[in-house]
Every structure is written in C-alpha cells, then in structure tokens.
C-alpha cells in the first residue's frame, strides 16, 4: 500500500481534532439536571425582613430569575453592574439567594454595590443551594410561571448573556404563559 | 548498618508525621466511628464539583464539607447508600459519581476501552499471522554459493555483493 506512510499523519490529525475541540470545552460548566424540572421546595427568610418568609408558591404565575450570590464571592462583583442594569429594565422579578453569607456582610455589600434584587432570601447554611445543585457562585436560574426551572446560567452574568440568552428566553416564556 | 537502618526509620516516621498532624486539623468526627467509616467510604466515590479531580472525602472546599455533612445526616436519618447517591444525583447529575451508571450517554465511556483493546489485539494478531506466512523466500543456488564463500573466508570482500 503506497499511502501507508499517511496513517500516522491521519491518526495525528484525528487526535489533534479531538484535543483541539476539548480545549474549547469548559469543564466548569456542567449541565444542570434540574432543567425542565420543578424548582426545589424552599421557604426562606428575606434579608431585609427576617420575619417574612418567601416560598415557591409566592412566585407562582410569573417568570422570575433566581440569582445566587454572596458578599464573599469575587465573581459576583463582576456581574453585579449587569444585574443592576437588568433590574432597571423591570422585565421580570430578580430574587437573590444569599448563599452561605452573614446578614451584616450581605447588607453592607448591597449598600456598597447597589441592590438589584426585588428581595434576597437568606440561605445561611447553603441547604437550599444544595437542593438547587449550586456548586459555584454566582449561578442564575430562570424559572417559569409553573415554577419549573427553564435555564441555568453558570458563572457571572455578562451583558451578552442577558441580551442573547436571558431576554429572548424570558420573552418566549412570557409568550407561552 | 544498624545506624543506617535507624536513620531510614526516622525518615519514614518524619515523612508520616506531617499528614498525621494535618489530619488532626480536619473537622471533628462523628461520635460513631462506624457511621464515619460509612460516610468516608461513600464520600470517596463522590466527585467534588468545585475541585473536580478530588472526591468530596479528600476536598476541603466548603461545598465538599457541606456535602459530607449531608451524607452523614442522611445516614443518621436512616437512609442507605443508594438513597443518598440518588439524592445527590438528583441535584448534581451523574457527574458527582466517580463510577458513572451504564446507560445510553455513557456507552462510549464504558465500551470504548474494551473495543479499543479488542481492535488492537485483532490488529496485532493479524500482523503476526501475516509475518509468519510472509517468511523469507529460500535462497537461490547463487546466493547459497556466495554465503558459503563468505563463511569460508575465500570471498573477495572488497567486492560489494550484488543483490
């Protein structure tokens, strides 16, 4: 066979192709198993009003965003201006999940950086975070009228993610509902 | 010799001490050592999602600590290993398992190495068999005569043999 010397080259190209594709994948972005499943049950006190708890049922009938944040989370600083801008558009309610944080730290952080949240729920021991499959803060969940998780954004929300993904998905859900 | 041996022993002890000292800093164990054994055994099979190449038994990431506590709590509540694994998979997906289940999406993962092994062995067998059948052709009389001459030392060595 004349073309035998091409075999190693072919194998190399095949491997290079696979490895090159692998370089572009982000191992930190794991597909959530909760997509298209009902959001886990929660009943949490609000940061600003510890006596008034919010549960899933309170959010029924509307599309809303749940943003997991903490004052110790560095990447949250990065996404915070984006969230501030997003909440000014008043598209959907933006609920914060204050994950494993101290109440005083969290309040001070919101005073310093602005508070885009309609309210923030206190998940001091991270239990609700685990129920939502949170493994890195920030994470953002899009939840529909029936309380089903429709989309999860992992890592800081960027202006592009809001424009190209979140807003179209929200519009679609609102149309469907 | 004895001194040498003692030195070596001292080295081994010195190398063992730091991890032991480090272990003492870990979170306090549950009161029940048997329970703790179960927790650790299961934790070794679960991947930490923050530092993805460590199990939640090895990792000290806050999430790993939380998940270990969850495992412990559920054991205390009377759940068995399967129920706890199910609980975690429902939240984090098969990715938390170091031993992924055998199903459609993991077919290549499970069968790929076996197929590669069979394919490689088959290729090797084919090559070896071909090598046997392709044994070198017997020498011609001419070549035989030249070989005999070379062995006798009567051949003209300055002359390059023609093939």
UniProtKB/TrEMBL annotation, chain A:
Keyword Transmembrane helix assigned: no
Domain Thioredoxin, chain residue ranges per copy: 33-171
UniProt xrefs under Pfam families: Redoxin (PF08534)
Coarse class of the protein's main subcellular location: other
Protein localization: Cell envelope
Keyword Disulfide bond: yes
Entry similarity comment: Belongs to the thioredoxin family. DsbE subfamily.
Name this protein carries in UniProt: DsbE family thiol:disulfide interchange protein
The organism of origin for this protein: Aromatoleum diolicum
